[in-house]
Request: fold
Amino acid sequence: MSGPGKVADLRRAGLAPHLEYTERLAEGAVPFQSCEECRAAVFPPRVLCPACGAMELTWERSAGLGTVYSTSVLFPRGRDPYPVVLVDLDEGFRMMSTVTGTPAEEVAIGARVRAHVDPAGPDGPHVAFTLETGERDERP
Amino acid sequence: MSGPDLRGAAAIAGVAESDLGEVGPGRYALDLAAQAAGAALADAGLSTRDVDGLFCAIAGRGMAPLDVAEYLGVRPRYTDGTMVGGSSFVSHLHHAALAIAAGACHTALIVYGSTARSDSVHAGNGRGRLPAAPPETPSYEAAYRPRMPVTGYALAAARHMHQYGTTRAQLAEVAVAARQWARLNPRAFVRDPLTVEDVLASRIVSSPLSVLDCCLVTDGGGALVVTAADRAGHLRRPPVYLLGAGEAHWHRAISQMPDLTVTAATESSRRAYEMAKVGPQDVDVVQLYDAFTINTVLFLEDLGFCAKGEGGAFVSGGRIAPGGSLPVNTNGGGLSYCHPGMYGIFTLIEAARQIRGEAGERQQPDVTIALAHGNGGQLSSQATAILGSEQAL
Ligand SMILES: [Zn+2]
Reply:
């Protein structure tokens, strides 16, 4: 396969996973892959399942609900503090993200969060989360 | 499945640092690497003409072995440019022993150099000059503006605190112990007194880690000369034998680390202990890569010095400081002695010096077994080496 004009083919063949991811994200989905062989949830996007090595991965749309696995607040000089979090999505994959709409230091490990796609930002659309009020995961 | 048995097959015959700290303008990573290489070879009573195996890694230089070999005028028959971050040089020691045992080389030089501090001081000079870098692999983290590497380690610290009740004061004990050791090392970059209160009061960079939970940024290089054990016995210095080595890595990005409280050091150390036929109870001094205070807590657990979750209590009360029951990072570590970006080589240099009994005011009595542990990436690459004196063989 060579040259431009083959992007659609590559996407269809599952060989340009990052491109596929960003396209789906731009449509407002929180995309991840699922392995047809072992059913593992796969993120970040790949051409091969890191759990079993199979090359048949299906794109899925996450329900966007998850639990904060860890959090760190950054304090840039002259700007508002912001949290960097790791979220375990209920489908079984983990991603780095941020939580908006809540003071950074109030984001706690174990908090339940809901995803949305923030279309802005220097790197284009990305997944961010808000706290899911009244729900808390009590796992240790 | 265990790897080839290298116990006692190779020995460190020479060690040296280059100039450290802030080395002044007009000097490059290669200059420091070569300065360290020349001094380590002199320490061993050898010269560049003896080197037939070259092992090196320099941040930002994908072909570091070619740069270094040309600079030194060596023509190695065996070359290894393994680049797994700060643990690279502990991996190199393992690989050098494998190569020596297989007859692929005879005299291995492991070498590193960096001008990380001077580069940041003079950063204005290069503005507007675009580096010719290859396209980045897409990042699934950058959009969230983590400050790397500190945020990765902060996420691990936060999780460890959540799961095990580890406190910031316990992390601060690590920084204080490192500083107390540095005060005994004339080559350490920072030697002012430091208290737990100072650490707790310092500015938070990426919670829960403050400025004083983070390593230094200095210049510096280091080198080791490694040769077959029988030959090392006839050289200038008492040989420091490699008793065991192990490596492991499970992830690259912090968001892909399966459990932020358990590192691959559990596996690298198990391999090293098995080969060395010793356990943590036999280790006299520990030199580990303390890029951040949480590292020391995690690695003391994962290297088997205390149970998982108990690292915070373990480092408290001066246990790892001068006069404590387990001497850890007797040179002052990356937190107070020197940290040019890829610190792992200095764990080996200090371990060798403690075994040779030449660590001056910080020398520990009767060191026969020392453990050196390197870390690379975001708690990603882990490499453990167990070194011993002739008595330990
Ligand atoms: Zn699979």
